[in-house]
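Per your request, structure below.
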């Protein structure tokens, strides 16, 4: 049985190494860590923005497809507009 998990021991070892850095090396380390965290943050939010854009585009395509199908069935434009959330002009253009 371990007294500590291997990952915890590894983290403690790394923390003790960092604690021994001189002031210049510590400043460089902190700057690099901030840069890495900023990069990770930017990547996360870029992915989230991309997903949101994709969902919005997919929803718009689905609404248009439903409107086209309804229009092909002869459903009045006003009813299609209310059902899909599209304007009557948008439905008429399809």
């Amino acid at each position: 049985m371990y007294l500590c998990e291997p990952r915890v021991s590894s983290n403690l070892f790394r923390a003790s190494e960092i604690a021994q850095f001189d002031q210049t090396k510590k400043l460089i380390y902190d700057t690099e860590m901030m840069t890495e965290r900023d990069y990770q943050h930017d990547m996360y939010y870029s992915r989230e923005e991309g997903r949101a854009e994709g969902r919005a585009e997919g929803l718009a395509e689905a609404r248009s497809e439903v409107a086209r199908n309804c229009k092909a069935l002869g459903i009045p434009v006003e009813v299609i507009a209310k059902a899909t959330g599209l304007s009557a002009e948008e439905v008429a253009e399809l």
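Helices lie at 6-19, 23-72, 77-84, 88-93.

Regards,
D.
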